[in-house]
Amino acid sequence: QVQLVESGGGLVQAGGSLRLSCVASGTIFSINAMGWYRQAPGKQRELVAVITSGGSTNYADSEKGRFTISRDNAKNTVYLQMNSLKPEDTAVYYCNCNARPRSWLNTRDFWGKGTQVTVSS
Fold this sequence. Notes:
- The structure is a single chain.
- By secondary structure, this protein is mostly beta strands.
- It is built from no helices and 11 strands.
- Helices cover 0% and strands 61% of the residues.
- Strands 2, 4, 5, 6, 9, 10 and 11 form a 7-stranded mixed β-sheet that branches.
């Protein structure tokens, strides 16, 4: 099993910053990639950013230039630094991990419970 715990969400004014953290734990053999998705009320979950074990990153166009994803492989932790936040960034942010548990031959996706980010006008 792989468990993901997000933290760092909260209430911030427009233009402010937050840093989200996600720690993966459990019987992990390897982690291929970790990333962040978000879901606002009435909308589908969407990709925010992803980073592979090799350091390659991918961002949604709306976040590029404002958000930065990073990873500490030794700690199985991924971070999302969010700057210049906008009200439209308000959503529940979910950590995603593509990992291989020790009892599995292949990788699969795991999800955290989410952390609320609210950006006020």
